[in-house]
Structure formats: C-alpha cells, structure tokens
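Cross-posted from the bioinformatics board.
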Amino acid sequence: MTGAAVLRRRVAGALLWLFLGLVLLFLYGPLLPPAIHSFEGTSGAGPLRNYMLIFEDARLLRALRVSAIVGALVALIAPVLALLAAEAARIWRPRLVIGILLIPLFVPGVSMGLATALLFQILGLKPSLLTITAVQVLWALPFAFLVILTALSGFDQVYLEAAYMAGAGRLRAFFEVELPQIRQGILGAALFSLILSFNETIRTTVVQGGYNTVQTFLWSQYQQIGLSPPLFALMTLMIAVTLALLALLALLDWRRRHAG
Amino acid sequence: MHSRRWRRPLRLAPLGLPLLAIAFLILCPLAITLAVSLFEKKGFWIRPALSFEAYRLFFDGVRLEVLERSFWVASSSTALMLLIAYPIAYLVTYRLRPELTRGVLFLFAVPFLVSYIVRTFAWADLLSRTGFINRLLIASGLVRQPVDWLLYSDFAVYLGLVTAHMPFMIFPIWLALSAIDRRLLEASWVLGERPSATFWRVTLPLSLPGLFAAAIFGFVGSFGEVAVSRILGGTGYQLLGNAIGSALDVLNYPLAAAVSTIATGLMLALLLLWYRLFDVRLFLGKIMGRA
C-alpha cells in the first residue's frame, strides 16, 4: 500500500471515531442540565434546598410509594412470564412465540396505553396499581424475554437430559439443574424490568386513574405549571437512580463473565 | 386410556397456559382498540356499532394534516437515525476489539434507558433562548442574538426523536452484522471486489433484517410520538400520538381508537412484512445460539 493510501485510511478511521464520540456526547449531554438547575434558587438556604423541597411534597411521596410497589411487581412478574415464554419457545413454534412476544416493543406508547385501558374498561377493572403494573409488565416483557433467551442459549440442554436419566422430573430438573445456571440472566432481566418500569411515562399516563408514579407526577407538573428547580432536583435523582441500577446490572454481568 | 389421553395436555399446561395469557394480554387490547374504533360515541360513553364515523372525522378534519406530517417526520427522522445507527453498529462489529464490544454497546444502552422524557426536558433547556447552546454561540462570537429556531421547531423535534429512538436501533443492526459469516466477506475479497463493492453487494444485503427491524422501531416510535413533539415542537406541533392524546382529553374514545388503530395497523403490516421476508430465529442466532 502506498503512503497516501495509508494516510487516507488513518484519516478515515480517525473521522469514524470522532463521529462515535460526537454521538455519545449528544446522548450523554442531556443527562447534565437537570443536575445544574437543581442547585438554582438556593441562595442562603443551603445547596440542597431543592432536594429537601421535593421530599416535603406529600403527592410526590405517594407517587414514590406507587413507583416502588409497581417497580417491584414488574421486576417480579415480567422475568417469570418471560422465562415461561422462553422455555415455551424452545419446544413449540419459536418463530411464532418470539414474534408475538416482541410486538409490545413496536407499539407506540400511547396506543399501548389506550389499548390496555380499553381492555380494563371492558373487564370492569378500575384504574389501580394493578392496571399500572399490567401495562408496564407488557412494556418490560420483550426486553426481559430477550435477556432470558440470551441466558438460556448459554445453557447446554445436555444437562437436562442427564437430570432426566438420573430420574428427575421436568420440574426438579429445572429447579436443581437449569435454574442455578441461568439465575444471573433472570436477575438481569428483573433489574432491566425495574429500570424500564421506573422510567416509563406515556403508557402509564393512560391507565393511571387517580394514582401517580414519579414519572407521571413529573409529566403532569410539566403540563400544568411547567418545570421548576425542585423538579430538576427530582429529575437529577431519577437519573442517578437509573444510572446506579445500570451500574449494578453491569457489575452483575461482569461477575458472571469472570466467574467461570 | 383416560389418563394417557390427559397426560399430554397436562404436560403442556404449565407452559401453554402462561403463553396463552401473554398472547391474550398482548393481542386482545389491540383487537379491542380496533373494535372500539368502529363504535358510536354516545355522550361521554360509547355504544357497540359498525360505524366508520371516527375514521371519517379523522380523515376529514385538520387531523389529516397531522397524519401527513407524522408520516413525513417519521420517515425522514428514521432515515436520519439509520444513517447514524448503521455506521455505529458497523464500527462496533468490524473495527472494535471483540472484548470491547459489550462495553461499547452498553455505553449506548445507558442513555436509552434513562427516561426519554427527562432527556427531552433537558434538550428543551439546552436549546432555549437563554440555554447553554445559545450562550455558547454568543460567547464564541458566531452570533449576536440568541438563535430562535433551536427550540419549538422542526430542528428541535428531529433532535429529540433521534436521541430518543436511535440508540436502540444500533442493537438489531449489530445483531445482523455480527451474524454475517466472515468467510463471505473474505470470498468477496478473494474474488477481487473492492471494499466498497463488498459492502454494497455482500454486507449491506445480509444486514437487511437488522436494518429493517431498526427502521420499523424508529419509524413507529416517531410516528406515534407524544412527548418529544409536545416538549420540543411547541403547542401547535402535533404528531399522531398527540392526536390520540387530544382525542382522549375530550373523551372521544372511538376517535382515539381509530387514530391508534391506524398507527398499530401500519406497525403490524410492517412487522408482518419483516416476518415474511426474514427468519426471526436466524436473526436472533447470536442471542439464541444455534440449536
């Protein structure tokens, strides 16, 4: 290769990496402004004034409780359903099962919210934590499903055959042989579901009724009175919690890969 | 005899019943939406009927303009997102040391998982007249007056849509690219093709399942968008999602359901097309392993 060609390749390579960095800047940049604004208007009242204010708001404390309960329920239900579906996909019409499970990923948020709200109306279910949980489970399901499919692919079915030959039933083989090996994947799916639940807004707004999650509280405050420094403090905390959960997810993944 | 006949259903039940429940929970609401879109509006409630009144209302009124705009904005922003996501997926697949792949993909997943509404609020702040970008432009002497078209404009909406949906689109493209057998690329090289010809004639066609899946995700997401258009487009800016929202605000369920059905119908048609063209098991080969 001639010198000019080498140089051209180098420049092209450098430009590509520059492009990658620029995109990351655009993606991570918006995570900063809320933190900066959260310290505004605090002169003489201590820098954490806005953070104290949000915890004095009774509506927000209620929303926080709803978010915590719903998040825990979604983190429990979505991975279990996803696991059952992934096991089913292994033995019965994988293309069909996968196709159906991935649909919620592609339905626009407000359509999904409206559709489940109409279903609940017909079933006679009043808006409650349960309806909020249901719509968020639907949203988390495809993600949890993909995470668990990945975990299952790392599990060699030969172990199950061995368990059957040793006289174990399907259930016992699952709990004593398969589950210990895919545990990390299920835990990952649960964390993923929790993060998705905690950050979901639009689907929830359609089925929330009189209840608020932290996200719908923020959204309604924006629509009614606009954003204020305490709300920026709230956003900062929401970003921090999400990043912390993601760090936990990364740690879990790192440990799994370096364990054996 | 009886016990044997019942054994098979019993064995299938532990997986079959949950699967049925999931399918019901996913498909039934969409079917009900279609049904309600044909209902009649009766005061504040609805009555079962077979009426196309809601669709007529939608296609007659100013909302048709919303549909046209949503279609245009969604297709052009999807093209833009593909132009960004594809090179990233390509770089991650072919130019990155394999042990860095997971880390870099994770780096793109992190902002996607932070609520896009919070990120959109942040954009509104950065792009405002007194925001960071205008102050930077003025301080650098590029402009004297704050730039007005940064916020409440098409520019802002496109920026918001791209940052909201693009990160996720990297994953299906990466999945498709990394499933390509490298020997095919080597064969193309051995046969004397230039790198660009190899890309256009081998790599790109083989990555179409991922490209198409990413495009559906970006397109439908932008098409039914609510928050980005509301926050960054300003009060008059409506995409199809906003039309559903405003129909819900006045409790016109058939109209909301009709608009929603148009969006989900389009999505299902695209997904079905994908499903006919490509094999989802091959596509997810990297995830599912090859049994």
